[in-house]
Amino acid sequence: MANGFLQQLPKDRATFDIFFRRVPDEGSFVIAAGLQQVVGELQKLHFDASDIAYFKQLKLYDEAFIDYLANFKLDCEITAVPEGTPIFPREPLMTIEGPLVQVQMLETLVLNILNHQSLIATKARRINYAAAGRPVMEFGARRAQGPDSATYGARAAIIGGCSSTSNVLAAKQFQIPAAGTMAHSWVEAFDDELTAFQKWAEIYPDNSALLVDTYDVLKSGIPNAIKVFQQLVATGHQPVGIRIDSGDIGYLTKKARQMLDQAGFMQAKITVSNALDENVITALLQEQAPIDNFGIGEKLITSSSSPVLSGVYKMAAIERDGRIIPKIKISGSREKITLPGRKRTYRLFYPGTDKAFADVIALADERIDGRPLEVINSDPLSVKNPTVIQDFDARELQQTVNLAQSTDKSVFEIQRFSKGRLAQLPDETQRLTNPDRYMVFMSKSLADLQQALLDQRL
Fold it and tell me: Which CATH architecture describes the domain 181-274?
């Protein structure tokens, strides 16, 4: 396509929007993530001699296009919602404008990054919401779909609220606390469980979190852990606690808490793992399981209950001979009809407050400044009755991205930003089951443009 565009429409510029239509796990919103990696990849985008040789070998491209790639220089402008922002269906989370040949080439790269990291950040937000303030450790590296998914998935998990990761590469690369405990193989490698615990405590006297379910949690694991904790205290150290990775977690944690408290170890933490997700966590906490920390692996790093964020990359406008021409994609399914033209998205707040009540997608040249605004529900399946909203403060969601500068914000800065933006949304939109619908409108002008293009094409 890029080769063809260079031949047929070499002077055209285009605007493409990246957005999604559906939220994973029947949630209300998606946490935007991956912008930092997109910027890093675009900053170093080039084609070296081996790439050029390969393209020539394919015999698919003309010589002018090969030369274009050999001398490639990115000439695109990007706006995007900041990482950590909760966004809703059909709202552009990124817009790319530039030469048609270039913006088309970026499609797969940008979608791959934004779809993956936004998916994992969204799943992590759900899991951390269920954990109700208890630390969640990301434990998923061995179940991720490859090393990059493990590493950048860990980054996205922190954006979504996790506190640490067992992925040491991600911990190093993104300055995330590294966390983990012994595995069952440590216990099995020694002649007995008590010796295994004692040897661990010798090496890590101030970081003794003992895995107690290798043989029997209540008959051997907890009693042996208590013996080692007593030895640690006698030598001036404080035990961290225990981890349970199998069995009836609710029942076992209650019994373990009783045994630890009776032995005088009220401060010892109980960490649980073993195929947990937001639904299991909710059930455990509803039955008042005394859990202090969660280690979440495969169901977080793969978002296994809803493993795809179907973000799309759609043309919104063409600039030809100095004229902006809005473009639309039409489908027999109303959900797939796109919003045409260059646009801006605004979050609307009650005047003088930090409480949002709706978003509006408008044309880029519209003034959204608190005056009465005629809008239409952006849900393609809704009844298209215009309504007027007034008395609001409007804040634009997308910001200009400077590709010449680093965007290396700390991942915990992004997490704090995300929590602040989540606090602006109504509580009802954040619950995990049957969240209330947050209203996303399109301006009457945008709706009229969409309908005019539909009438033109049908």
Answer: Alpha-Beta Barrel (3.20)
Tens of pLDDT, residues 23-33: 999 999 999 99
- Name the helix (H) or strand (E) containing 303: none
- In the chain, domain spans: 2-105+311-457, 120-180+284-307, 181-274
pLDDT of residue 199: 98
Digit-coded pLDDT (tens) for 402-434: 998 876 789 999 999 999 999 999 999 999 999
Sign, Cα dihedral of 297, 299, 304, 307:
negative
The sheet with strand 209-211 has its strands ordered as 164-165, 136-138, 293-296, 269-272, 241-244, 209-211
Structure-block tokens of residue 46 = 């080039």
Rounded Cα–Cα distance for residues 401 and 138 (Å): 29
| Distance between CA atoms of residues 70 and 73, nearest Å | 9
Query: Residue type for 316, please?
Result: A
State the fold for domain 120-180+284-307. Answer: TIM Barrel (3.20.20)
pLDDT of amino acid 404: 85
- DSSP state letters, 270-292: EEE-SS--HHHHHHHHHTT----
Q: Say how far apart CA 164 and CA 440 lie, in whole Å.
A: 34
Rg (CA), the chain: 26
pLDDT of 176 above 80: yes
Spatial CA neighbour of 244 closest among 188, 181, 193, 287: 181
Mean pLDDT of 46-55: 97
Q: How many alpha carbons fall within 13 Å on the CB side of residue 126?
A: 28
**Structure confidence at residue 382 (pLDDT):** 84
Domain at 2-105+311-457, CATH class: alpha beta
pLDDT given for residue 374 in this prediction: 95
